[in-house]
């Protein structure tokens, strides 16, 4: 067991898989000599050379597509798209190619492609550089999406993604890169898409993922001071979603709060609320509640950004109203 | 699909294989950014890929869609050697492609060939193709490459029996072109046409008589590699 930062855990995962399988290659903007915008590929260029750690031109659509073609030809490419905002240029490669080719070939082609995408809001990077676009990718059958919130999960899930024969998108979080945590490189990993109960509780279930799962944990600690016992589930994966772990918790607590960093409208939280309501309707004491970013582009202004992105106190406040059985959004019948 | 081609070419180069990847696209597909991105990366890393543009002069129904209509000239901007070839001439295509592929396999980097050709029908089942001036389709059909090649074979080649009776020396005296390129007599051509028809008919019949796919087939096609893994 060692203590690593999130980016170091990703770096170790890459190094381990590259050392064990020569077919694993890394490509993206500044992944080589520079060592990666978030240092994730640091040292790999010197160790494995330019054929396996390839600096690319600023051509997101084409180098992601290059990864698709290389995967079809037997390599195991790990494509880094510098941020989720630039992944918009690669959607054709991701959605029309990576997600479709195994299906359209009747399963004859595997797609051992990993796409690492640092995403989420950062600090004052403004509207075009701090988007959360997981909903866009979730709606595409054929893509698997993991969203590690801890260095340990970052290590495990990136390794599992590289070993998978399907296209797996690893949505990293830019604000988590310098988080520290224990990483055991030798213990057996849980299945890549299994949710994790990060804190047990009995009054309500908080379902979250990526950075917001950590924020939900902070909120749960505040709630405990008020005598409210919150169970916190870190989904770890957005496609597929581990419904059983969520439903077991919701049936126990009868209350569901979803915390997400993405905009509220048509976000992941909407899917989670709807699916768990279908599964657990008769166990629910109140309608599920979502705490999400306001439906606005993320502003540059620091104070506004803080107001738009949910904070632990927002999650705790919503949890209190839910635990008290009062839904602020529900209008009283006339 | 150019992206997939440069990816496959990257894998070929990575493994040091004596192979080349051939990537086909139409003239309508050269105004997408990925055309330029792919050519750039292919040239930058000397990827073993032959880009083949089948220039049929129409982007579905739009005839004039490029500021520079001669596609091969665009390759020069990426230091890729390129040529325009008569796409209605089978032997010209063969010769150019063979030479390009030999150089590509020898590690000399990508090339682009622009084959000037035509399509006789509309772009799709829903396209009657009426945007083309009268006579244009007929003019191109008159120089149909398959028909032209067949005519040449039929007109100029002695049949196998005649060649055999003449003896090997006489065969050689006909010149390299006849011998090296092989030959088919009238009977051989008919056999070839029959074989092609049979193959197509067999495929159609197989498709028509096969059972409809099930939802389970669709699901397992999407996730063929998930079956033996515990994902959750």
Beta fraction of chain A? 15-25%
Count of individual domains of chain B = 2
CATH class of the largest domain in chain A: Alpha Beta
User: In CATH's first tier, which class of the largest domain in chain B applies?
Assistant: Alpha Beta
Question: What portion of residues of chain B is helical?
Answer: 40-55%
| N-to-C series of helices and strands of chain A | EHEHEHEHHEHEHEEEEHEEHEHEHH
Oligomeric state, counting identical vs distinct chains:
heterodimer
Question: How are the strands of the biggest sheet of chain B laid out side by side?
Answer: 1-2-4-3
| Largest beta-sheet details of chain A | 7 strands, mixed
Low-pLDDT segments of chain A: none
Q: Mind telling me the C-alpha Rg of chain A?
A: 20 Å
**Total strand count of chain A, please?**
14
Q: Count up the domains of chain A.
A: 2
Provide an overview of this structure.
The complex is a heterodimer of chains A (334) and B (232). Chain A has helices spanning 6-20, 44-48, 60-72, 91-98, 101-104, 134-138, 151-163, 211-225, 243-253, 268-280, 302-308, 312-323, and strands at 2-5, 24-28, 53-55, 76-80, 114-119, 144-146, 168-173, 180-183, 196-199, 204-208, 230-234, 237-239, 256-263, 289-293. With 334 residues, chain A is an alpha/beta fold. Chain A folds into two domains: 2-183, Thiamin diphosphate (ThDP)-binding fold, Pyr/PP domains (Rossmann fold), CATH 3.40.50; 196-323, Rossmann fold (3-Layer(aba) Sandwich), CATH 3.40.50. Chain A has a seven-stranded mixed β-sheet with strand order 3-2-4-5-7-6-12, sandwiched between helices. In chain A, strand 2, helix 2 (44-48) and strand 3 form a beta-alpha-beta unit. In chain A, helix 1 runs parallel beside helix 7 (151-163), helix 8 (211-225) crosses helix 12 and helix 9 (243-253) crosses helix 10. The longest helix of chain A is centred in the first third of the chain and has 15 residues, at 6-20. Chain B has 232 residues and is an alpha/beta fold. Chain B is 49% helix and 11% strand. Chain B has a four-stranded parallel β-sheet, sandwiched between helices. In chain B, helix 2 (33-44) links the parallel strand 1 (21-26) and strand 2. The A-B interface holds A 25, 51, 54, 56-57, 59, 61-75, 77, 92-93, 97, 102-103, 105-107, 110, 141-142, 144, 164-166, 191-195, 237, 240, 242, 244 and B 2-15, 33-34, 37-38, 40-41, 44-45, 217-218, 220-226, 229-232.
């Amino acid at each position: 067991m060692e203590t690593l930062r999130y980016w170091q855990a990703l770096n170790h995962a890459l190094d381990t898989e590259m050392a064990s399988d020569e077919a694993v290659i890394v490509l993206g903007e500044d992944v080589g000599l520079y060592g990666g915008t978030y240092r994730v590929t640091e040292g790999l260029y010197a160790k494995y050379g330019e054929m396996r750690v390839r600096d690319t031109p600023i051509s997101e659509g084409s180098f992601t597509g290059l990864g698709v073609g290389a995967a079809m030809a037997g390599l195991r490419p790990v494509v880094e798209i510098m941020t989720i905002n630039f992944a918009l240029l690669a959607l054709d490669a991701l959605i029309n190619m990576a997600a479709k080719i195994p299906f359209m070939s009747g399963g004859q082609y595997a797609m051992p492609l990993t796409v690492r995408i640092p995403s989420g809001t950062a600090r004052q990077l403004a509207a075009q550089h701090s988007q959360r676009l997981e909903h866009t990718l979730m709606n595409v059958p054929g893509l698997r999406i993991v969203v590690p919130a801890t260095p340990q999960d970052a290590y495990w899930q990136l390794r599992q993604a590289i070993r998978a024969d399907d296209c797996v998108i690893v949505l990293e979080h830019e604000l988590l890169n310098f988080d520290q945590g224990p990483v055991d490189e030798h213990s057996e990993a849980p299945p890549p898409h299994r949710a994790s109960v990060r804190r047990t509780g009995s009054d309500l279930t908080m379902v979250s993922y990526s950075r917001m799962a950590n924020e939900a944990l902070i909120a749960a600690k505040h709630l405990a001071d008020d005598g409210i016992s919150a169970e916190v589930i870190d989904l770890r994966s957005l496609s597929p979603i581990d419904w059983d772990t969520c439903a077991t918790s919701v049936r126990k607590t009868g209350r569901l709060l979803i915390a997400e960093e993405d905009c509220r409208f048509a976000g992941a939280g909407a899917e989670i609320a709807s699916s768990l309501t279908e599964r657990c309707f008769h166990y629910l004491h109140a309608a599920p509640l979502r705490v999400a970013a306001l439906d606005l582009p993320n502003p540059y202004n620091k104070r506004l950004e803080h107001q738009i992105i949910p904070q632990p106190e927002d999650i705790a406040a919503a949890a209190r109203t839910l635990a008290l059985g009062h839904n602020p959004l529900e209008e009283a019948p006339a | 699909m150019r992206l997939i081609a440069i990816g496959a070419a990257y894998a070929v180069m990575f493994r040091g294989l004596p192979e080349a990847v051939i990537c086909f696209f139409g003239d309508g597909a050269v105004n997408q950014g990925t055309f330029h991105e792919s050519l750039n990366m292919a040239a930058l890393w000397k990827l073993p890929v032959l880009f083949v543009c089948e220039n049929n002069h129409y982007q579905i129904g739009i005839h004039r869609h490029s500021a520079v209509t001669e596609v091969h000239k665009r390759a020069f901007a990426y230091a890729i050697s390129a040529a325009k070839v008569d796409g209605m001439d089978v032997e010209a295509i063969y010769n150019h492609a063979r030479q390009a592929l030999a150089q590509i396999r020898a590690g000399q980097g990508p090339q682009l060939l622009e084959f000037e050709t035509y399509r006789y029908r509309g772009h799709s089942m829903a396209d009657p193709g009426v945007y083309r001036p009268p006579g244009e389709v007929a003019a191109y059909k008159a120089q149909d490459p398959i028909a032209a090649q067949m005519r040449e074979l039929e007109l100029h080649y002695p049949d196998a029996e005649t060649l055999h009776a003449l003896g090997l020396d006489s065969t050689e005296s006909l010149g390299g072109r006849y011998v090296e390129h092989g030959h088919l007599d009238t009977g051989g051509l008919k056999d070839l046409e029959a074989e092609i028809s049979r193959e197509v008919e067999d495929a159609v019949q197989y498709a028509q008589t096969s059972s409809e796919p099930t939802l389970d087939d669709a699901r397992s096609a999407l996730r063929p590699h998930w079956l033996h893994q515990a994902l959750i």
